Amino acid sequence: MQHFLLSAKARTLSLKAVFRMGEDAAYRTFCDLRWPETEGEAVCPRCGCTETYNITSRCKFKCVACHHQFSVTSGTIFSSRKLSFTDLLAAIVIFVNGAKGVSALQVSRDLDVQYKTAFVLSHKLREAMALEQASAKLDGIVEIDGAYFGGYVKPENRKEDRKDRRLKINASGKRQCVVIMRERNGRSLPFVVPSEGDAVPLVRDNVANLATMYADEGAGWDALHNGWNTKRVNHSVQFMDKGVCTNQAESYFSRLRRMEVGTHHHIAGPYLAAYAREASWREDNRRVDNGSQAMMVGNAVMASRQSRRWAGYWQR
Ligand SMILES: [Zn+2]
What we know:
Elements: H1 15-34, E1 52-55, E2 60-63, E3 69-71, H2 85-97, H3 104-111, H4 115-132, E4 141-149, E5 176-183, E6 188-193, H5 200-206, E7 212-216, E8 229-233, H6 247-264, H7 272-284, H8 290-303
Parallel strand pairs: 4-7, 7-8
Antiparallel strand pairs: 1-2, 2-3, 4-5, 5-6
């Protein structure tokens, strides 16, 4: 059988198609994503009225009822956009196509926009991906595992100056733990915590009571036995013990690690959670064709509220 990613189904929206469709069609795509219930006809975000005047020259609408002026991106993550709709759609396609993530530098080169623009745009798309993930509790078999990111300490040049980096006293204090909870054949939820055991209280909020937890021998997971049917696999002995394993969680970390090492080279602490959520979105949707992935992200962008964190980021 042909691998999914090699099949024609996996590539349903190409950059070529985006640039061929042109600005008007790209604009209509955003209208369709924003107002699906009226098939792309504008709806006033203030009063819900569907009667609007078109101010076509500026891609704006004016509400007949309350005279509110708005555009297709008003109030969303893409509000006060400066890029064309073609560029925004292309950015989404470039972004979803990067299995290991896409660096802001690459977006900046591919779209010929400033690095700052690409940086904020990428983070907005990450935010949309996070919104797109449903928040219902995980159930069934849920694998849980943690891995540490950040806090790299560079070894000194001379051997006699080098410190034992395994010792806590020589650590940078910036190391953080990403914990993934991953439903078998289902969704995954990442969290950033100081160490594995700190994630146990979060399990209560995010995993159903009757779920079965699979965890490795890490002492932090002992507390899980108090709340859930919990099965352990000792990785120093074997990776799979009578069907119990955390291989799906490992697969997630392998992707996040490749994103860190291969794409971004360094992930700054405050952004770790955003990248962790992006990796989980990519894992959960890895078998969805790229056109549908782009529409999912586009849909989330248009359904979003203006970003608190990223709106006017460089103007502060
Ligand atoms: Zn109105």
